[in-house]
Design brief:
Layout lengths: L6 H12 L5 H8 L3 H13 L12 H4 L3 E9 L4 H8 L5 E6 L6 E7 L2 H13 L3 E8 L9
Antiparallel strand pairs: 1-3, 1-4, 2-3
Helix pairs in contact: 2-3
Amino acid sequence: MTKALTDKDRELIALLRINAREPVASLARKLQVSRTTVQDRLRRLEETKVIEGYALKLTDTAAMAGLKAFITIEIDPKRTQEVVRALVKLPQLESLHTVSGKYDVMGMIAAADADELERVLDRIGEIAGVNDTESAIILSTKLDRR
């Protein structure tokens, strides 16, 4: 059973969201705890899968090289698992989420250019079980707290 997060755990996670590579000594100073305490918390958060890993975050300029688009997808309810399995095979699909409302899933696509984006959107539309899609190209990002 996963132990509930403490306030210090939440503070540590917030600091790691800002800079996942921040040295343990610096995290300890900011949290006003010992380095050993931070190391123990990190190990526990990793072991309990609260922290699944550490990822590369690109600058807005690098991340926006090319195009990004949100896509919402309406799926035949009897084919949801089949459609999701097909979608996750697309390397341009960066994330996929189930959502409430008219559409069943929402994803984020990253493409090098408009031609690639169009090909990906066409491939998604051709997947058996996809009833409808709607996409929106991201023009700029005003806030990203990930």
